[in-house]
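Deliverable D2.4 — example input (structure tokens):
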């Protein structure tokens, strides 16, 4: 009877070791995926900031009175 308890315990330890190995592999894959997603996010943030800079530069080049003239002529046509 004592031997079956030892066998049962050994089997449970083996299952626990297998589960641990699976968790370690899963964790490694998740860390790799996180690194890829973080790199992608950083790249997208950089592209977004560059696009914002280009838009701001274009907006600064627009004449300030042009938007007022468009609004005034639009009101006069009505």
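Example output (designed residues):
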């Amino acid at each position: 009877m004592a031997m079956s308890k030892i066998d049962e315990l050994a089997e449970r330890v083996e299952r626990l070791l297998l589960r641990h190995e699976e968790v370690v592999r899963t964790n490694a894959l998740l860390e790799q995926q996180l690194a890829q997603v973080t790199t992608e996010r950083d790249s997208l943030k950089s592209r977004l900031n560059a696009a914002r800079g280009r838009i701001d530069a274009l907006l600064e080049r627009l004449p300030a009175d042009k938007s007022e003239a468009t609004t005034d002529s639009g009101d006069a046509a009505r």
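The chain has a mean pLDDT of 89.
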